Amino acid sequence: MKNIIVIPCLNEINHISSIIDSMAKQATLIGADLIVVDGGSTDGTIQEIKYKETQYDNVFFLDNKKKIQSSAINLAVEHFGAGAEYLIRIDAHGGYPENYCQILIEEATKTGASSVVVPMKTEGFGLFQRATAIAQNSKLGTGGSKHRVGSDGCWVDHGHHALMRIDAFRSVNGYDETFTHNEDAELDYRLLNAGHKIWMTDKTRMIYYPRRTAKSLFRQYLGYGRGRARNIMKHRAIPKIRQMVPLLVAPSAFLVALCVIHPVAALPFSLWAGICIAIAVLTMARERSFAALLSGLPIMIMHMAWSIGFWLQIIGMQKKSYT
C-alpha cells in the first residue's frame, strides 16, 4: 500500500528546493508520492516546483486555488489518497532528519495510533528570528505545550501534525477549510471525539524556522488567536489554563487607559510586561546571548497578538449572532 507526503506552500522560494530534494528521497524509501501544493506563489516557487517535478518521478504539483493550508491537504488527499495508507504533512518552512518519515510510520505501526505528532524545536538565524526561536522554545512563550517543550512518547489531545492514517482523516472529513489557522487543533478535536488516538513520538522531531520580522510574527499570532477562538466556539470547548492566561493580555492593555482615574489600572499590564522582561533577563544570564535578552519582545508580541485575535473573533461572532 502506498503513502503520500504533502507539502503545502506559499512564496517559499528560499526553502522549497531543498525541502523537495530531502523529501523526494524519503518518499522513495517509504513508497510514497510527494505532492507539493502551492497556494499562488509569486516569488518563483511554482516554477521551482515544476522544475523538480521533471527531476523526480514521485514529485507532483497541485494548484491550491483556495490558498490556505487546510484546503491544500484536503486537495492532495482527494487527488492522490486513493489506495494510500498514510498521509505525512511537511512544512515547507522547516527542517527534518533523514529518517523522519520512516520513523513516523514505525511509530504508527507500533502504537496503532491514527495520528502521530512530533515535537518542534525552533531555530533562527537573524537577531530577531533567533530571539523569537528562544521565545518559542520557552514555556512562557508557548504555554508549555508538550510538542513545543518536549516530552517522552505519550498519548496527547493535540500536537504538531506529522502523520495520519488516510482512513481516519477521511472518516472525519479532513480539515475544516473555514479555518485559516488552528485547523490542526480543530481536526484533532474531531479525531478524538470519533474514537481515534493521537501519539506524540519522542523518536524524532522537526525544526521550525520562525517569522523574521515583528510584523509578520504579530500577523501570524493574530491568526492563531482567531483560530483558537473559532475552535472553542465551534465545539463549545473550555479553554485550557495555559490559554486562558494570555486572554487577559489585551484587556490589561485597555485598562492602562484608566490609570488616569486610578494608577492601579496599569498594574495587570505592568505585571505581565515585567514578567516577560524578567524571564528574558534570566534567559540571557543562562544562555549568555543578546538574542536571549531580546526574547522578551517576541513573547510580548505573541501574547498580545494572540489575545487581540481571540477577542476580535469572539466579538465578531457575537455580532453575527445578533444580526
Topology order in helix (H) and strand (E) letters: EHEHEHEEHEEHHHEEHHEEHHHHHH
State the distance separating the first and last CA atoms.
Answer: 51 Å
State the share of residues found in helices, binned by percent.
40-55%
* Poorly predicted runs of 5 or more residues: none
Strand-residue fraction? Answer: 15-25%
Determine the mean pLDDT. Answer: 91
User: What is the radius of gyration?
Assistant: 21 Å
The tally of helices reads 15
Structural class based on helices, strands and sheet pairing: alpha/beta
- The total of beta strands comes to 11
Description:
- The protein has helices at residues 16-30, 45-55, 69-80, 100-111, 127-136, 139-142, 146-149, 166-171, 183-193, 214-235, 241-247, 249-255, 267-287, 290-294, 296-321, and strands spanning 2-9, 32-38, 59-63, 84-89, 94-95, 115-118, 120-122, 154-156, 160-165, 198-200, 206-208.
- It has 323 residues and is of the alpha/beta class.
- The protein has an 8-stranded mixed beta sheet, sandwiched between helices.
- The radius of gyration is 21 Å and the shape is globular.
